[in-house]
């Protein structure tokens, strides 16, 4: 098991991230060494400020903190535009720490994209795209994972009307190959089995409900299967996610956002983890947002953050 800690970027200081970091640390009881990157002024509760990641090992009574200066205060529920650049810089600092080998993985707490755009003209749609840019990677893949299911959407945050145009053979192939490689490297699955959904109802039903399965998805799956990939599909999405079906694959690759996220959030709403596949380092994140409406009220559920930290630690062990 890697002895380097997981570095946790603070995310939006006005959201629930800082309080769930504390809750997660207390719940893990040292099982996952971690260090929070944040401004000490923003953090309530007991912390142990450390000068470097080398000082984290063995600290189990108070959350280790690497200080990072922010320009504004942290008022729960009210983002301060002066903090936007600090949020961005903390993510970049976390990437530097894990890329250099100082940390075993990066766990990112939720950001608020509008606050970053308003305060620092943030040019990226979200965490994932910014991390890819920092890593110099052209294409990454989003996976949502819980103990009973892993899902990967091929297209993500676009209108449903735009999905058929965005869905190309190149994009689907890249998604499948990145997913297979990550399951081998980071999840320890020697021969990953990927179930691939169709785009249309009943996977097109032989062309009666759409032809993308015939013209795009099936030819690609046939070619990749001949290369040795273990693929099934295109499958009707409405029959892919019951327990018996899930036992037949290691990850489900879906054509669009809701096709992938509705089943996993139904199965494990609180415990899902967002994992970015295709980066040269490990990145996980809780699968929820800043929750400004409950920030600072002690109501935030740390389950997803705990799961994200455990998954990051386990992935680091698999990656070695």
From TrEMBL:
<feature type="binding site">
    <location>
        <position position="283"/>
    </location>
    <ligand>
        <name>substrate</name>
    </ligand>
</feature>
<dbReference type="InterPro" id="IPR005255">
    <property type="entry name" value="PdxA_fam"/>
</dbReference>
<dbReference type="GO" id="GO:0050570">
    <property type="term" value="F:4-hydroxythreonine-4-phosphate dehydrogenase activity"/>
</dbReference>
<feature type="binding site">
    <location>
        <position position="128"/>
    </location>
    <ligand>
        <name>substrate</name>
    </ligand>
</feature>
<dbReference type="GO" id="GO:0005737">
    <property type="term" value="C:cytoplasm"/>
</dbReference>
<keyword id="KW-0521">NADP</keyword>
<comment type="function">
    <text>Catalyzes the NAD(P)-dependent oxidation of 4-(phosphooxy)-L-threonine (HTP) into 2-amino-3-oxo-4-(phosphooxy)butyric acid which spontaneously decarboxylates to form 3-amino-2-oxopropyl phosphate (AHAP).</text>
</comment>
<keyword id="KW-0560">Oxidoreductase</keyword>
<feature type="binding site">
    <location>
        <position position="274"/>
    </location>
    <ligand>
        <name>substrate</name>
    </ligand>
</feature>
<protein>
    <recommendedName>
        <fullName>4-hydroxythreonine-4-phosphate dehydrogenase</fullName>
        <ecNumber>1.1.1.262</ecNumber>
    </recommendedName>
</protein>
<feature type="binding site">
    <location>
        <position position="202"/>
    </location>
    <ligand>
        <name>a divalent metal cation</name>
    </ligand>
</feature>
<dbReference type="GO" id="GO:0008615">
    <property type="term" value="P:pyridoxine biosynthetic process"/>
</dbReference>
<dbReference type="GO" id="GO:0051287">
    <property type="term" value="F:NAD binding"/>
</dbReference>
<keyword id="KW-0479">Metal-binding</keyword>
<feature type="binding site">
    <location>
        <position position="257"/>
    </location>
    <ligand>
        <name>a divalent metal cation</name>
    </ligand>
</feature>
<keyword id="KW-0460">Magnesium</keyword>
<dbReference type="GO" id="GO:0000287">
    <property type="term" value="F:magnesium ion binding"/>
</dbReference>
<keyword id="KW-0170">Cobalt</keyword>
<feature type="binding site">
    <location>
        <position position="157"/>
    </location>
    <ligand>
        <name>a divalent metal cation</name>
    </ligand>
</feature>
<keyword id="KW-0520">NAD</keyword>
<keyword id="KW-0862">Zinc</keyword>
<comment type="similarity">
    <text>Belongs to the PdxA family.</text>
</comment>
<dbReference type="GO" id="GO:0008270">
    <property type="term" value="F:zinc ion binding"/>
</dbReference>
<keyword id="KW-0963">Cytoplasm</keyword>
<comment type="pathway">
    <text>Cofactor biosynthesis; pyridoxine 5'-phosphate biosynthesis; pyridoxine 5'-phosphate from D-erythrose 4-phosphate: step 4/5.</text>
</comment>
<dbReference type="Pfam" id="PF04166">
    <property type="entry name" value="PdxA"/>
</dbReference>
<keyword id="KW-0664">Pyridoxine biosynthesis</keyword>
<dbReference type="GO" id="GO:0050897">
    <property type="term" value="F:cobalt ion binding"/>
</dbReference>
<dbReference type="InterPro" id="IPR037510">
    <property type="entry name" value="PdxA"/>
</dbReference>
<feature type="binding site">
    <location>
        <position position="127"/>
    </location>
    <ligand>
        <name>substrate</name>
    </ligand>
</feature>
<comment type="subunit">
    <text>Homodimer.</text>
</comment>
<dbReference type="GO" id="GO:0042823">
    <property type="term" value="P:pyridoxal phosphate biosynthetic process"/>
</dbReference>
<feature type="binding site">
    <location>
        <position position="265"/>
    </location>
    <ligand>
        <name>substrate</name>
    </ligand>
</feature>
């Amino acid at each position: 098991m890697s002895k380097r800690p997981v570095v946790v970027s603070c995310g939006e200081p006005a959201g629930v991230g800082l309080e769930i970091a504390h809750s997660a640390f207390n719940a893990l009881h040292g099982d996952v060494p971690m260090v929070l990157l944040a401004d000490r002024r923003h953090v309530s509760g007991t912390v142990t400020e450390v000068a470097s990641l080398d000082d984290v090992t063995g600290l189990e009574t108070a959350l280790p903190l690497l200080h990072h200066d922010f320009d504004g205060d942290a008022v729960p529920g009210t983002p301060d535009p002066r903090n936007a650049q600090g949020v961005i810089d903390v993510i970049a600092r976390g990437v530097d720490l894990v890329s250099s080998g100082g940390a075993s993985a990066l766990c990112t707490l939720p950001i608020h994209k509008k606050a970053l755009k308003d305060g620092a003209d943030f040019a990226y749609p979200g965490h994932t795209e910014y991390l890819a840019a920092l890593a110099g990677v052209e294409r990454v893949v989003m996976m949502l994972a819980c103990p009973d299911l892993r899902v990967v959407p091929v297209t993500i945050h676009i209108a449903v009307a735009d999905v058929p145009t965005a869905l190309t053979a190149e994009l689907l192939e890249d998604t499948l190959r990145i997913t297979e490689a990550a399951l081998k490297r980071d999840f320890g699955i020697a021969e990953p089995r990927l179930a691939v959904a169709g785009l249309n109802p009943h996977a097109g039903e032989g062309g009666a409900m759409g032809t993308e399965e015939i013209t795009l998805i099936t030819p690609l799956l046939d070619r990749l299967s001949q290369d040795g990939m273990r693929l099934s599909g295109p499958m009707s999405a409405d029959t892919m996610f019951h327990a018996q079906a899930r036992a037949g694959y290691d990850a489900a690759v879906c054509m669009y956002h809701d096709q992938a996220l509705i089943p996993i959030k139904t199965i494990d709403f609180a415990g899902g983890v967002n994992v970015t596949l295709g980066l040269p380092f490990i990145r996980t994140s809780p699968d929820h947002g800043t929750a400004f409406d409950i920030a600072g009220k002690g109501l935030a559920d740390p389950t997803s953050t705990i799961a994200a930290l455990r998954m990051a630690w386990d992935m680091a062990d698999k990656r070695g």
